[in-house]
Model the fold of this input.
Amino acid sequence: MRPHPKPQAFPLDMLAVNRSSPEHLSRQLYHGLVAIIRSRALAPGSELPSTRALAAELGLGRNTIVSAYDQLVTEGYLANRQGARPVIVDLPDGPREAPAEEPPVPLRSPSRRGQQLLSQPCHHGRPGHVAFHPGMPDSQSFPFGVWGRLVARRASHGGETLFGTYDVTGHPALKEAIAGYLYSARGVRCRPEQIVVTTGAQAAFDLLARLLLDPGDTVWMEEPGYYGAKAAFSVAGAKILPIPVDQERGWRLDPPAPLPRLIYVTPACQHPLGITMRMEERLRLLDIAETANAWVIEDDFDGEYRFQGRPVPAIQSMDRSGRVIYVGTFAKLLFPALRLGFMVLPMELAGRIVNALSTTGQFAPLLLQAALADFITEGHMSRHLKRMRRIYAQRRQLFREIVAERLRDEITLSPAEAGIQVVGYLKEGIDDIKVSQAAAKRAINVSPLSKYFQNTAATQGLVLGYAACDAAQTRDGVERLAAAIRETLG
Done:
């Protein structure tokens, strides 16, 4: 048995309380006692003074001492004994503090997957920097008054169904509304049970990458292409092979070896070029997917905004083998911070997806889903979309005119058919990374086109979102962008 320690004088001088401090007296006392115990000013096994004795010595209420002692017992610093004073527990020394002159021991690095996650590209704007954030809708035109009433109504009458972790795959009313909308607007054929509501399209890509890919699997992706999806597939361990895309020749679907496990495309509005996949390319894509027994992810992030003719039907509407997974988002239709997207899965996957969602925790708030269902079914979304198509068409034309007038020698805008962003190709010799950095100093938010390339030689250009800017913001933004380009050219 360990010998009982010799009695030691209690180091009362190490306990100081400041009655003018905002910190509660019991917390001050707790911190002082922890310092005594950890510094071993009292040996392990030593008794502390009784609560009455210490209260008298410090001029504090006994309840203050009891509160501090109880917390120390809870955390394992003290041990209570029946009918006796608490004693100090014999704790391990713990990690030693390095002397000041020694460099700290570096922490272990993240896993290889973690390092990949930390190294992926991203692009997030800043409040007020709407010119020319790619893909940013005009939040000022959104009917927030209507939206606020719908959310408040659901919050007041939602009952318990909206405030728990129920309906993990999505609120039934919203899934019903999405199914109806997709059929009428995009030709997507699905039942509500096939729809999974996600916290945005990126959450869908992350989940699909983990569900469908093993390390070393091959993914075909457009080049240039959406780096968010590419990041999700890369972190899952996939090998990315490019499908070259350009304005003149479209999608070059000459199968490289090996054949893919998954094909990712943005056919309605190619990201970032804004072109639309032709019918012969769509049929060719489905034929390749059949041959390879590959999944196809159809990302329809911006297909609602088309300025020549009607929006084209989704590839999913042509799929007969159940291999096309359709992914959509409300970020461009409504506002990005809503963080609501969805995917349409084959029934075989949809029936088991709840287990994967429960593991990731990637399910969206039911209150917002219910309000969005009302927003759709009561006609607010169709009215808003019709209005925004008119506004964006006007802003698109004005943006093109101002850029052609002010930057005709530096930028050539692509003839994009759809979407709320456009690519501006830079004159030879202008570095798009440097231009984007110079623009950021002037509160102009543009994305360098070279960032969308991974496997082939990058084209120098800027991805420019015009939708969130009114006429004055567009003119001012183009002037600032011109100044950024001048700075880059020296």
User: Anything to note?
Assistant: The mean pLDDT is 89.
